[in-house]
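For the sake of transparency, this paper describes our internal protein records without simplification. Because each token names a local backbone shape, the row as a whole describes the fold. One such record is reproduced below, unchanged from the form in which we store it.
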Amino acid sequence: MTASDLRTRLLSQADAAGGWGYRLGQPAHLEPTCLALAALGGDPSPAIKSANDFLEAQRFNDGSFRLVRGRLQAAWPTALVLFQKTACDLPETERTPIAERLLTLEGRVVKADPEVAEMLDIDFELLGWPWAEDTFSWVEPTAWACVALRKAGYGDHSRVQEGLRLLVDRAFDTGGVNYGNRVVLGKPTEPIPGTTAIMAIALQGLMTEPRLDAALGYLRMQADKTTDVDHLSWCIAALACFPDEAANGVAVERALPKLEAALAQEADLPVALSGGPYRTAIALLALQSGSSNPFRIAGVPTLAPRAVLGSTRPVVEDSPANGPKTFTQKISAKVRGFFMDGMSKLKPLPVNSGVHIHKVAAYDDSMLTAMKVQFAHYRTQLAPAGKRVVLKPNLVEYHRDKVINTDPRFVDAVIQLFKDEGAAEVIVAEGPGHWRNVQYLVEESGLGEVLRKHNVRFVDINHDEPIKTLNLGRTTGLEYLYLSQTVLSADLFVSLPKLKTHHWAGATLSLKNLFGTLPGICYGWPKNELHWRGIPNSIVDIACTCTPHFAIVDGIVGMEGDGPLNGTAKLFGAIVMGADLVAVDATCCRLMMLPVDRIPTLVLAEQKRLGRMKESEIPQFGETIASLAQAFAWPPKIEMQLLKEKR
């Protein structure tokens, strides 16, 4: 597929109202629109004018760009707009106000963040740019800000210099970078191709830096082994910015035919599973990575000594999201909070708190048979016939030798269960906190094959339409939550977690699985803002605001120890389901022999009347807890996170 073919495809993917969404049929968003405009350059198509009109409609008086219908704290697309206007060589008068506002946006150190204490190998006092205002600095928004500001002529500014230092500081000595955590709880994390590419683009000219050289080596390796459109595109775009090193040119030459083949293959997929405008735009940018490469930056970046950084911090003005509230707004917020507190005390408990446990030894046909036996206890209550069912598995990262995710064979059986129950539509939806390229995770994990088998649509929640929703939990201090439109519009919303321990929450089950229902475009990656607001608080607020109707837990093979990523597989041999998620999770904790009354999420959820936690109040169907319970190894240092044992 040639660049000309891709231009035609990208223009055809434009939203009729102007701009580009992340997927076909979605209204325009800032990021895909900026990337598409940068890729199309001076194309005279009417779609260009409509897209620019869309961008202007998202401009605020303070010079920042935020999705008007999204979360206003998420000002990170401002850097993308500046990059696009510079790449398209628009007048300096258009770029300067954006650059000046971007320079005033900064992250901050969040002392209450449980991750910060574990980031002892990075300098977390370095300030870059956040995904959302008043939160921690992360690699990707910092890299985009540095790219945009350097291209706009602000490379010597102290903010840019500090941002570049942050990028170098976060990078791995062995190559690559992720969103910002090299080590968590003593365990090394892994780099991500797309984020590494944007970091490398930002660091152009800094060839004496060993971590940049290692990052380029990592990108060459990824370009050689991957067939994913997103990964190939970013690897090519970044490596093409360093043409003086022969190895980079060789890697690009080998990767380009692979990208063209991957694009052709993706074009043959059903619309529900194919790549949308975002992937098309970055692929077109990659195919144009020659002399007209919009990512190329001239000059060598200046890095001031660490000791002088921060001496000229900008004065941060009030933003549209964080400005002072009027007296009326403050009173309204207090009234809403008082009303919500009162309503939570009157909230009726779930009608059916019964939990069904069924022994299932393997991921085979016995799963569906067992699920049908179990579901008979809930059919009348849930009545899935004719309904739109949204399934939320746990899909975090993919490692071939780890049992991190809900097994795709398990999801296969659940899809068939609801099809047999007469569901009008079944959708699988997930918003991973660690990876933006969810299409890669879907394919590598084996879930893509399952979706094609059933002709079921997958929705990337991270880039789904955000719906501003009154926070009914009120424990995080957030007045509103921005939830996925797909999840909120489900007739039947089902959580499909993996039976796992968790190094901060104690256990990660059907309630913790709800983190993935908040779009990353509103909260960033890895959604760390929700961590420092309190993991139990965030989970319970989401559950109160958008309570799932049902949970089916993949307990056939669980994870013990340092979950949710670094634990050990544990054959458990059971499926657990129920309509009261607190009861389901409490039962799962008892099956893992974890102290239920010391799991903060469950204690808070019970207080908020989300469900029943006491064993005596949970009717038990199928196997007994005593007959199947196995002691799961606890995560390291978990005693610091669990509620103190009662004396």
User: Anything to note?
Assistant: DSSP finds 25 helices and 14 strands in the chain. The longest strand covers residues 550-560. The chain has two domains: 3-308, 353-640.
